Amino acid sequence: MKICMIGAGYVGLVSAACFSEFGWNVTCVDKDEGRLGDMRKGVSPIYEPGLDDLMVRNMKAGRLSFSGDLGPAVRDADVVFLAVGTPMRRGDGYADLSYVFAAVDELAPYLEGFTVITTKSTVPVGTSRQIEARLRALRPDAKFAVCSNPEFLREGSAIQDFTHPDRVLVGTDSADGRKVMEKLYKPLSLRGSPVMFVSRESAELAKYAANAFLAMKISFINEIADLCEDVGADVQEVASAIGKDRRIGDKFLHPGPGYGGSCFPKDVSAIIRTAREARSPVSIIEQVERVNHERKIACAHRIERALGGSVRGKRIAVLGVTFKPNTDDMRDAPSLVIVPMLQERGATVTAFDPQGEKHGAPLLPGVQWCASAIEALDGADALVVMTEWNEFRALDLEAAKAAMKGDVVVDLRNIFHPDAARAAGLTYTGIGRR
Prior knowledge:
By secondary structure, the chain is of the alpha/beta class. It has helices spanning about 10-20, 35-40, 50-60, 70-75, 100-105, 125-140, 160-165, 175-185, 185-190, 200-230, 235-245, 265-275, 285-305, 335-345, 355-365, 375, 390-395, 395-405, 420-425, and strands spanning about 1-5, 25-30, 65, 80, 115-120, 145-150, 170, 195-200, 315-320, 350, 370, 380-385, 410, 425-430. Helices cover about 45% and strands about 15% of the residues. β10, α15 and β11 (about 370) form a beta-alpha-beta unit.
């Protein structure tokens, strides 16, 4: 099969590389010449473990290529994926579909033979039908089907998620479109991965519903963590106990400074907007959005309390600024709220993140960036863990104490054992712990 992937961002590039690993021929189309130049050299513009090697291997095999010319890629394709950005629209929180519709308008003249146009981007319910109507108006002579095929990839483990998915979800009303998508995902179905065919509306809503539910689990355990502190329980013990229930599961039950990233904030906002337009209240999800916003502010106050009520004149070492480990993604990261609040209240902030400085530095002006955790801790009054990179778990706490001026640790990810921190002479504050 021949695939055209429009968009070489996180979703498009990972999907293109993985489809080529299945043996399909994939052309990834992007307008950014700088990105294209890097990708042709086998250098990914995003940080994702294993992605560079996957790209190079399939480029050498002749199955993966990168182009700025949409026409030839669309003309030859059996499947054209739309993997362009759908950011949160300013003012109303709705998904901005301008990039999606611009791509549709641009590809329309090049359709030849039967082609399946598939949304990989996360789009509001009804978008597939809008795309179909737009293409029918532009190319009434063309033979095509429009499908929805949302991705469920976790940054930091996207390749594993793509090649060993819990499920593949395809929304289509076309029998011919279904045949093409069945062939496309046959390598996964042969492995036993379920490929589910549903209506387009169900596929589009399922992506939003899944992310809203996971965001709800995060907000839920954060509120339970606060309750644990007030009643003398330990949130890790509570989370472990309820997570053993197969009806609940143990994923996303880790307290912290709130969710961020490219998906949860915008998808929660978009499903709220969709529900309001449909006059079908989703009050639980609206509360999740509010709780998550307030959580980041509360964590800044938590740091202030740990330092005696004020951070003025204090030097605070922040370990981790990306929204999660194993990514360089700064989108809606809790650090973008917490760090500026500390700075506004008079703190000096030093920071180290294994991958976060490149994108974090422009977003966090005034932060002093360091080459290691110990360097960031030099002369610090407090250590704040904001992202749970594995290398921070192995931090020598005695060496950390020796480098610091003060002794305060605010562990917003519960990666250190309180007893170990105290044994090193540190004053430890975690989340939801006794």
